[in-house]
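Predict structure. Input: Glycoside hydrolase family 43 protein, 331 residues.
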Amino acid sequence: MRISIRVVVGLLAVLYCSCGKKSPDDANRKPDPPIAEGQPVYQADPTIFPYQGKYYLYGTDGAAPDQGIRVFVAPDKKQWKLSSRSADGFAVRALESFGTRGFWAPQVWAANSKFYMAYVANEQIAIAAADSPEGPFYAREPLAFDQKNIDPYVFFDEDGKKYLYHVDITNGNKIYVASINDAFTAIDKQSRKLCITATDPWEIIQARVAEGPTVIKHKGIYYLVYSANHFENQRYAVGYATAASPWGPWTKAAENPVLSMTNTGKPGSGHGDLFTDPDGSMYYVFHTHNSMNNILPRRTALVKASFVANPGGPDKLVMDVGSLYYLQTTP
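Output follows.
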C-alpha cells in the first residue's frame, strides 16, 4: 500500500493509536545510528533491476510520490546516485506518462528490444516503455480492468507464457493473477484468478491486506512472495506461498512471516522484490518505517535471500536478516 504526502500528518498520528501498536520490547530498541556517508535512500515498495553490470533502483518516492517515479543507479548495490538522464532523476513523470497522482510500486524488465515498467498511478496499473532503464518511460493509458488494482508484477514462465500478478483493492487487498499478452498491453480478463487473501493472524493485525507480490520459479515450484497486514503498522511483514502452477492453488509457508520486525528489528519491514546477481546470489530489496516513531519517509533496505532444502516439501525461502543494510546515496 502506498501513501500521498497529503496524508502524512494523519499517518503519523495513527502510529500512536491502536492501529500502530508496539510490542513490549519496543521501548528498549535504539534508533539506527547516523549514516556517516551519503544520505538514506527513501524509496518504498522498491525494486532493483540488474542490467549490464549496473543496478537500477525504483520505488514509491518518499519525497514526490505524486510527481512520478525516480531511478537510482549503482555499480555495486551500495554506491547509489540519482540518474542524471532527466531532471531530478525521474524515469516516469506525472502528466508526461499516464497518471496525475499516486505513483507507486514499479517493476522493470527488458523484452522486445525495449525496457518496460509496470507501475501504479491513480490506483490503476500502467505498463510503460523506454529505450533505457533510466527512462523516460511512457504509457498512454492504463491496462483495462473492471476494478481498481495496484502492485503489478509481470512473471515470465519457462514456456514463454506471461502473467500479471496484481492486487485488487476492493474490500481488502487481495492478490490475483491473469494472463497478459506479449506486448504487455492487455490482460485476458477471463483468466483472472484469486491467489492470496489475508487470513492468518499476522496478516490481519490492522487490516485484511495481502499485497506486493513477487513470483519466482525454483525446481519446478512457483513461489509467491507477498506482504501482509498494513504498511502503517510496525508488524507489516513478508511471507510466501508455493504452488505447482502459476495459477495456484497456493499453500502458505508454515514459517511465515519470513521477514518482519521480529527478526529484523526494523518496524514496517515489507513490500519489496527479489532479484538475482549474475553470480546467482539472490537478494530481497524492501522498505521499513523511517524509525520506531515515524512511518515516513520509508527507508530502503536489502537482505540476502536463498533456498534451503526441506525434506518432504518444497525448498524453504530464507531471508538472511544478518545481512541487512540500508541503501544510501554516494556523497
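The CA atoms of residues 67 and 94 lie 5 Å apart.
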